[in-house]
Design a protein that fits this description.
single chain; mainly beta; 1 helix
């Protein structure tokens, strides 16, 4: 009996060791490389019906369509709440503009409308959240105002807590700068100051944000001016928050600033063109982004139809041109860096395509990896990170 127990114990011990050895030697399953993404489009004559869903494989850098996620009018900008449960769209429809809240069903890649409120302005073109996730900011381009919407517990939008119309001196371009034109809005990292890029005023406006009430009051000073006729469009902070960059649509340039968080103010450092010196012709810049490693800045050119790349000096925040890379289509209105920070995806609005580029971490250079076609008028791309 004792011998039997010893043999049995030895057998169990040996089997356990073998199983452990096999488990250690066996390759671990790779982490899921797939991300769900949503693309906002212009509807109407383009044939688009609203927001479309895609699967992005970060292992291969390829996009696969998952169909229409939600039928909605002109969702020109789409954002996903930090909790991954809700999405919000700016419905750019002139006097009938709205902001829409959706619930996300990740399994079906579909969005279900929760509610829809008037934008309280004309042509909302940019949305962002405060750091608590309790408020949504909306920039209304044509009417030049910024609205704050509270986000309720069920993801619906509540009645606005603030509505501020941008004020200041208009730029010299009579056609494009006929009034204030809020084009981008983002809160500071400490949730105290709201930055607004106004194309019509040639200025970055600064508002104090009261996170308890959701209200806005002008900062002191209330704005920072850019070059006359610049037409600032979108902005981006450096990962460490020390620097701030603005791409200007009308003069095709990026302006670098140092950012002073105590007062929410900017100090200009440099202005650099997004175009090569020998380019002559129509061009409007659109999107800007700083790579999460803080080494590279990207800006899109519409007309030249490229992504301009700049190296960032980590000490002083200044930029050095590092090349321009064709987007392989027309009018790259928007682009995004993927969650693995290895790829840049550019949406070509006028050629109905999204092109995926790999990012060279040592040079910032872009190399085309894949392309998705037949996407009607893509103008915004956002990843679901949950």
């Amino acid at each position: 009996m004792k011998i039997t127990r010893r043999l049995f114990a030895f057998f169990v011990f040996s089997t356990t060791l073998g199983a452990l050895a096999f488990a250690a030697a066996a390759p671990k399953p790779a982490a899921d490389s797939h991300y769900l993404a949503f693309v906002g489009t212009y509807t109407g004559e383009t044939g688009s019906k609203g927001i479309y869903a895609f699967d992005f494989d970060s292992a291969s850098g390829t996009l696969t369509t998952k169909g229409l996620a939600a039928e909605t009018i002109a969702p020109s900008f789409v954002v996903i709440h930090p909790n991954g449960k809700y999405a919000y769209a700016a419905n750019e429809a002139g006097k009938k503009s709205t902001v829409t809240a959706f619930a996300i069903d990740a399994k079906s890649a579909r969005l279900t409308q929760l509610n829809q409120l008037p934008a309280l302005g004309d042509d909302p073109c940019h949305l962002s959240f405060d750091k608590t996730g309790k408020y949504l900011f909306a920039a209304n381009y044509s009417s030049g105002n910024v609205v704050v919407f509270p986000i309720l517990g069920d993801g619906k939008l509540g009645e606005p807590t603030a509505n501020m119309r941008d004020t200041g001196t208009l730029g010299p371009n009579k056609e494009r700068q006929d009034g204030p034109h809020a084009h981008w809005v983002q809160i500071s990292s400490d949730n105290r100051f709201l930055c607004v890029s106004d194309l019509g005023l040639d200025a970055i406006l600064s508002y104090h944000f009261d996170a308890a009430k959701g209200t806005l009051t002008p900062n002191d000073p209330p704005f920072t001016k850019l070059a006359s006729g610049a037409g600032p469009r979108h902005g981006a902070f450096s990962p460490d928050g020390k620097f701030f960059y603005v791409v200007s649509e009308l003069n095709s340039a990026v302006t670098a600033f140092s950012y002073h968080p105590a007062k929410g103010t900017l100090e200009q450092l440099q202005v650099v063109s997004t175009l090569p010196a020998d380019f002559h012709g129509r061009n409007d810049t659109a999107e800007i982004a700083v790579h999460p490693d803080g080494k590279w800045l990207f800006a899109s050119n519409r007309g030249h139809d490229t992504i301009a790349v700049f190296a960032i000096d980590p000490a002083n925040g200044t930029l050095r041109p590092a090349g321009e890379f064709s987007t392989g289509g027309k009018e790259p209105r928007h682009f995004v860096i993927d969650p693995t920070v290895k790829f840049l995806l550019a949406e070509n609005q006028n050629t109905n395509s999204i092109v995926v580029f790999s990012i060279d971490s040592s040079t910032g250079a872009l190399r085309k990896v894949s392309q998705a076609d037949n996407i009607p008028s893509p103008v915004c791309f956002t990843f679901l990170l949950h």
